[in-house]
Amino acid sequence: MDITMLISIIFAFTSLILAFVLDGGHVHSLLEPTAAMIVFGGTFGAVGISFKSSVLVKLPKIMAIAFKKQKQDRQAIVDTFYKISNLARTSGLLSLETEIQNNTYDKFIVDGIQLVMDGTDPEIIKKTLENKVDNMEYRHSKGIAVFEAAGGFAPTMGIIGTVMGLVHVLGNLGGDANSLGPQIAIAFIATLYGISSANLLWLPIANKLKELDTDEIVTKNMMMDGILMLQEGGNPALIVERLKGYLDDEKEESEEGER
């Protein structure tokens, strides 16, 4: 679990509620089941209409990815390519078959090394791996699009809920005038739900998924560079130096301090 993300969500909602209470409001005034039904039910319905069921069934998994702490260990990838490039240099490329079978390397690395061992043309290897990255990015984009769509629908559903509430208020203008204020306030709770859910949940989750997608693409490009240099018979030290360019600045500074 990404504790920072969870704490940030709690902090954001708590800040809004606390500010409301400090301004003289009551927490129970913010709890309106009918407004929640309109906003969240309408948002989920609109999302369901907009996307195929094959995408929607993956939403729990996509949501879990957003809330799970994800960190690409690029230093481990550098170490992996140093190890296998040394092995290829001393024992030949075919010796890598046993190595990849006996270790739990990333499937992208295993597939790339298999192409190298099969004697595939470097340009074909590059195109094949690039296609894998493009397909991965396309899969990720569909999950991101769902949350971006929810972030767009939610405020509109909030406005619809508010209009519905105001229609009810206007229909009862002949009644008790003292009840009009509270009824109007209740109507605007729907707008509050729509705007807050969009800007504190759906759109931030979409942004988090975009960040994870970018991070994984960089990692896959790093692996591709290593595979292509391995195919060229590059010096292990040179391969390591090339791949270190993908490490975070903080990681490089830490390594320099340890030397």
Tally of strands: 0
Distance, first to last CA? 33 Å
- State mean pLDDT (0 to 100 scale): 87
Portion of residues within helices: over 70%
Main sheet? none
Radius of gyration using CA atoms only: 27 Å
Unreliable spans:
252-259
Q: What general outline do the C-alpha atoms trace?
A: elongated
Please write the string of helix (H) and strand (E) elements.
HHHHHHHHHHH
Alpha-beta classification: mainly alpha
Number of helices: 11
What oligomeric state do these chains adopt? single chain
What portion of the residues fall into strands of 2 or more residues?
A: under 5%
Q: Can you characterise this structure?
A:
With 259 residues, this protein is mainly α. It is 80% helix and 0% strand. The chain has helices at 3-22, 33-50, 53-56, 59-67, 74-91, 96-101, 107-117, 122-171, 180-231, 236-243, 249-258. Helix 4 crosses helix 9, helix 5 (74-91) packs parallel to helix 9 and helix 8 packs antiparallel against helix 9 (180-231).
Features:
259 residues; mainly alpha; 0% strand
